[in-house]
Design goal:
The chain is of the alpha+beta class. The protein has one domain: NADH Oxidase (3-Layer(aba) Sandwich). It is built from 6 helices and 4 strands, in the order ααβααβαβαβ. Helix 2 packs across helix 5 and helix 3 runs antiparallel to helix 4. Bound molecules: flavin mononucleotide. The site of flavin mononucleotide has 8 residues, from strand 3. The site of flavin mononucleotide (FMN) has 8 residues, from strand 3.
Length: 195
């Protein structure tokens, strides 16, 4: 055995998404982020495209980002679906999280590799980041949805089609106890053939 399987499986199972609202006021340091990006960079990818890209925000830049996201939320919400509380929650994430990371996909110039595969490679990169975050005792929350996918958000970030914004990541330490994960058993998800 090359690695200790008990540690590896425990790390995988311990990984958690922790909402910015549930984060403790403790700074995430640049060297920790650099180790996360180093791990991201080792994700598998088809055709050596390495399509994962990140934009990192803290301090005033984070405040501006969250204010813009709140404004985009207002813009994309139908008037009867808009919630002032949600608007304020998006703004307040600048106080709860110490850093936000926009994750986006850089489309291969030739477009030979299908877009789905490029997105899957970016997701693998985020998983690698999450595992490093777990080792530090941090969660990593992936926020996607209508704000992240809004054309005006991409424009604000200077990201142009066919490149795509895939979400905003919030690493950080939980305020309370490390949350329990929950999964249905894997045995119902696997079909064995020829065994
Ligand atoms: C691609 C992707 C996008 C996600 N987007 C959201 C999101 O917009 N809002 C949200 O509450 N959780 C989002 N999540 C996180 C899930 O809620 C979370 O993984 C799930 O609740 C399981 O919890 P765990 O990650 O702690 O095991 C996303 C996860 C992935 C992989």
């Amino acid at each position: 055995m090359k690695f200790n399987l008990t540690d590896v499986t425990r790390l995988i199972r311990t990984r958690r998404s922790i909402r910015p609202e549930q984060l403790r006021n403790r700074k995430v340091h640049r060297d920790q982020l650099e180790l996360m990006f180093e791990a991201a960079n080792w994700a598998p990818n088809h055709g050596k495209t390495e399509p994962w890209r990140f934009k990192v925000f803290q301090e005033e830049a984070l405040q501006a980002l969250q204010q813009h996201m709140a404004d985009v939320y207002k813009e994309v919400s139908a008037p009867d679906a808009f919630l002032q509380s949600k608007y304020e929650q998006i703004q307040a994430r600048a106080q709860k999280a110490s850093v936000a990371i926009v994750v986006w996909m850089k489309r291969q110039e030739s477009g030979r590799i299908p877009e789905e595969e490029e997105m899957m490679a970016v997701a693998c990169a985020v998983q690698n980041m999450s595992l490093v975050a777990t080792a530090y005792g941090m969660g990593l929350f992936w926020s996607s949805g209508k704000v992240a996918y809004a054309p005006s958000f991409a424009k604000y970030l200077g990201i142009e089609s066919p490149d795509r914004v895939l979400g905003v990541l919030y690493p950080g330490y939980p305020e309370e106890e490390w949350p329990e994960g929950k999964r249905n058993i894997w045995m119902n998800k696997v079909e064995w053939n020829g065994f």
